[in-house]
Amino acid sequence: MIESQGLTKIFKDKKRGEIRAVDGVSFKAQPGQIYGLLGANGAGKTTTLRMLATILKPSSGTAKVAGFDVVDDPEKVRSNVGFLSTATALYGRLTSKEFVEYFGRLHGMDEAALAKRIGVIFDRLDMNEFRDRRCDKLSTGMKQKVSIARTLVHNPPVMIFDEPTIGLDVMTARVIVQFIRECRAQGKTVIFSTHVMSEVEKLCDTIGIIHNGKLLAEGTLPQLRERHAEQDMEEIFVKVVGE
Amino acid sequence: MNLKNIRVVYNKERMDMLRDRRTVFNMLLFPLIMFPIISIGFNRMENMFREKAKKEAAQIMVLGAAHAPELDARLRASGKFEILPLAADFKQQISDKKLRAAVEFSPGFEQALHAAGGVSPTLTLYFYRTELRSELAVRGLEELIGKYRTEIVQGRVVSQGMSAASLTPVITKEQNVASAEKVSGVRMGAIIPYFIIIFCLMGALHPAMDLTAGEKERGTLETILASAVSRGELVMGKFLLVLTTSLITAVISLISYSATLKFAPSAAARGVSGAAKDMTIHFSLQAVLMVFVMVLPLAVLFAATLVAISLMARSYKEAQSYTGPIMLAAIVPAIASILPGIELNPALALIPVLNVSLVSKELLSGSLPWASIAVVFISTSFYAAIALAIAVLQFQREEVLFRA
Amino acid sequence: MAARNIGIVFRKELMDMLRDRRTIVSSILVPILTFPLLMLGFGVLATIVVRKATKESPTVMILGESNAPALAKLLREDKQFEVVPPANDYVQRINDKKLRAVVEFPAGFEDNIRSKPNEPQTLTIYHYEGEFRSQNVLNNLEESVEKYNATVVASRVAAAKMPAAVLSAFDSKKENVASAEKVTGNILGMILPYFVIILCLTGAMYPAMDSTAGEKERGTIETILASPVGRTDLVIGKFLLVLTFSIVTTALSVLSFSGSVLVGAEMLSRVTKSFVLALSAKSAAVVFLMIVPLAAVFSALLLAISLIARSYREAQTYVGPLIFIVILPGMASMLPGIELNNRLALVPILNVSLVAKDIFAGQYHWNQIGLIFASTCVYAALALYVAVRQFNREEVLFRS
Question: Are B387 and B308 in contact (CB under 8 A)?
């Protein structure tokens, strides 16, 4: 479960003064559901998700992830979150196994449990072929799988994805999309950000449109279609943002 | 190859580079401020400590002073020494630098001196070899003792009817016949080419890597390769920019050094060559310009080599690991030329970098060994041409341009 | 919990860094190879110069030989130079380095020596001031002249019916009382601390830059920040990594130069008995201990600087001046005559350099050593605090 109330993030830029990257964003994401955060570049998606993952601290407002407050209990939040942004950012000199092990250990898993879990994940994602290969020698698709394995190693109830399919070709993007669906099937709370309309239409149970840091519209796809008298997600988006 | 295209490429690279803070720093600020700071700063510090050491009254001990009251009195009166009371562990104290030196007179020292004939007495000087203050103390002692010895001998022969002057039948007068330029040349002539070469290299390094490997990394190389400019023109434009920065750096360093020499000559001279006397530096403008002409093909060699090598790298970081050894390889011959006793000869005139260094040494001392100058210039230009050809060829090879 | 996480981070960073070829080269190979290469280079160059000097016979001209046949004969017998026939263009030839020196005897030189014992005679030696070979020849000539002086004075004394002993007032001996270790230490202390300190810094450079600015560039910093490890723990883990490399580099440098000195001493003792090199293990060990807190200062500083940078390249731009700033005190300590005193003991880096100089020479001023050790530790703690503060600032972590 993800709950945010008036989440705000203000950056101070030397030249441009105060920037409200995220401005009073409030929403709820339920377990077993996919919440999609839709917006253009610079709309505040990444900043919102970073605040939920406790990477950034909110300037004001609150958020509760898996029942823990992001400001008061950031460590507990992180233990319950699987965060994926740039899927291909790995430690090049480590092998796939070593990479996933590192994060498993940081999550407090003991060696025996960790080894078992890695065995399960690598089998399920069909990664055993490159288990002991250095990350900088992997193809994009393989790197993706390693990142996914990393987010799953501690079996978190909440999954946060920041533009996970950016720069990926059709086939490899499908792998990510499939994975996101599986997370929902397992009852996890899933939130992901994107500006790809087709993904939104295919995946999301609830859609939040964010622009200039403000959440301008929220609802299921049928709700939004009715509210704004459009069928196509892109048209809905343009309408909402244009107002 | 189209000259206009080369110029377009060159101008863009130049504009780009001037906006890069690091290049500007390396190219302009660093050489400009380095010489004055180092020469003057160091010289001040060194003088401060050396003079202090000299002025300090050295702490010594005199053993057996009763055997040589006259000499002992002179030591005390000279003001250069602080005579400490006797202690048995004087050797340990010298070792621990608590005492700088000790003088020991053999029993009956002065008596034996004034008795005619007989055995010559001995005195022993104890000191800490290589330790500056101890060595200085010993030098002071030897000076004073030497004077005393001369007086004794003179006294003896005079008392027998000879004159003191007869003890020095021959006086040697040393006269320097080398021109002021030559003297300057030999003291400093090695340092200046060394610095010019180093700065030439330094000025070329970052641009060479940034314009090739750096562009590969940023993804902009691909874009320019798809444009109308030919590969040959592209590499020439980049090479010319690297050459320009390299020469500017060298010129600025030269100006900075000359200015330091002019306005604080003794400071700069001492700071660099440790010359003990004050001296004026004489370099003719002509000599300096000739040196510059000799360095020109060398700069071309450096620029071309660095560009060719950096191009093979996939990223700026990788380029650094390739160019590092090259820099070292170029610096070593430059250092070798500073050693005294290494002179230009036909064999050495063919070794790159070293030959330019040595011939510059000659030029700065005012000589014009035309044969050597020609050999050095031609051979360096030859090497430079080869390097440039290699660079151009590299730029045609797809495996190099599109390394993954 | 915190210690465990620091341990996990440290172990991963260590494993990662050991696989980086560049770090291996700069932190392990370079410190090991620097000193042997330096010694080798120095030895080779020295042999070349000596060999060249002894092979070529420098030329000398004698003018007015008829005025001093005996002395001229003595000069000709000197095997260290070759006498060439007189010519008028000697000034030019000296300038062109074709002639190294000219000895000129004025008219009536030897006659006057014989007939006018109370009037010293002057001979002139023309030379090229400052030029290496000319200077050598000058020294040789003056030595020969001194020998001649001595013979003449001896004969004068004999002619005046005085015993020869009249001329020898007393013997003076010079005795070095410092042990071979102290002499070696004094010499080593002038150059080694500088090198070891520089190597300590360069050993920390790549690990520091790679694990911070490098991570930012590769995009992995966000991932680790989303993991349960606290920010402070993360910094400390990285700091320990950089410190490890810095200390290993320092240890390798100390071992390498100790080895080089001992080997050099061995080789030198075969060539000449007059100069013995020796190095005490104690001094090497204490110097190593003194540099450890300095390694901590460097590591923390480099970490803080690399954190502020947006990319690896930017980090290098900042680190460059740092190297320069560290080199200066190191070089200053090489100046002869600089000794550690209470004032200099407070100047960072310079104090470590100078105290290392003293320790090499076998002097252990324990209170000064303690003071310097403690003050450097304080600087290290400060630098680490700054690094941790930086890592907690979002503007620094997510600069774009």
Answer: yes
Residues of chain C in contact with residue A65, where contact means CB-CB under 8 angstroms, are: none
Which residue intervals of chain A bear CATH 3.40.50.300? 2-80+157-242
Q: Does B27 touch chain C (CB under 8 A)?
A: no
- B362 in a structural domain: yes
Answer whether residue B208 is part of any domain: yes
For residue A84, what is the nearest residue in chain C, using CA coordinates? Answer: C223
Q: Percent of chain C beyond pLDDT 70?
A: 94
Inter-axis angle of helices B354-364 and B191-209, to 10 degrees? Answer: 140
Interface-testing mutation among C33, C170, C347, with chain B (most B C-beta atoms within 10 A): C170
pLDDT confidence tier of residue B206, bands split at 50, 70 and 90:
confident
Taking the mean position of all CA atoms in its chain, how far away is CA C392?
42
Residue C366 CB contacts under 8 Å (≥ 6 apart), including other chains: none
- ipTM of this predicted complex? 0.79
Does residue C230 surpass a pLDDT of 50? yes
Q: Does C183 touch chain B (CB under 8 A)?
A: yes
> Which residue in B124, B156, B175 is closest to C166 by CB distance?
B156
State the nearest Cα–Cα gap between C209 and chain A, in angstroms.
15
pLDDT of amino acid B277: 45
What residues does each domain of chain C span? 2-42+179-397, 57-167
Do residues B273 and B185 make contact, with C-beta atoms less than 8 angstroms apart?
no
Chain C residues with CB under 8 Å of A79 CB are 228
Whether C95 sits inside 8 A of B177 (CB atoms) is yes
State mean pLDDT over B175-180: 85
Q: Does B19 touch chain C (CB under 8 A)?
A: no
Check whether B279 has a pLDDT greater than 60: no
In this structure, are B243 and B127 located in the same domain? no
CA gap B259, B35 in Å, rounded: 9
Q: Does residue B275 carry a pLDDT above 50?
A: no
Interface test with C, best of B177, B187, B315, B321 (most C CBs within 10 A): B177
Choice between C341 and A50, residue whose per-residue pLDDT is larger: A50
CATH, domain range C57-167? 3.40.1710.10
Interface probe for A, chosen from C24, C223, C241 (most Cβ of A below 10 Å), is C223
- Contact (CB, 8 A) for B394 and B312: yes
B36, pLDDT greater than 80 = no
Give the integer Cα–Cα distance in Å for B188 and B363.
12
Same domain, B211 and B108: no
How many domains does chain B divide into? Answer: 2
C98 has a chain B CB within 8 A of its CB: no
Quick check: is B174 in a domain?
Answer: no
Using a CB-CB cut-off of 8 Å, the residues of chain B touching C128 are 176-178, 182-183, 186
Q: Are A65 and A49 in contact (CB under 8 A)?
A: no
Question: What is residue A42's predicted lDDT score, i.e. its pLDDT?
Answer: 85
Name which of C16, C222, C228 is nearest A75 (Cβ-Cβ): C228
> How many C-beta atoms lie closer than 10 Å to residue A185's C-beta?
9
Closest CA to C43 of C238, C340, C263, C273: C263
pTM: 0.78
Determine the distance in angstroms separating the CA of B34 from the nearest CA of chain C, rounded to an integer: 10
The domain boundary, picked from B142, B165, B188, lies at B165
d(CA B40, CA B46): 10
Specify if B215 maps to a domain: yes
- For B340, the domain range is 3-44+180-401
Domain A2-80+157-242 CATH superfamily: P-loop containing nucleotide triphosphate hydrolases (3.40.50.300)
Per-residue pLDDT reduced to its tens digit, B82-123:
888 888 888 888 888 888 999 999 888 888 887 766 678 888
Same-domain pairing of B87 and B199: no
Domain-ending residue, one of B165, B197, B212:
B165
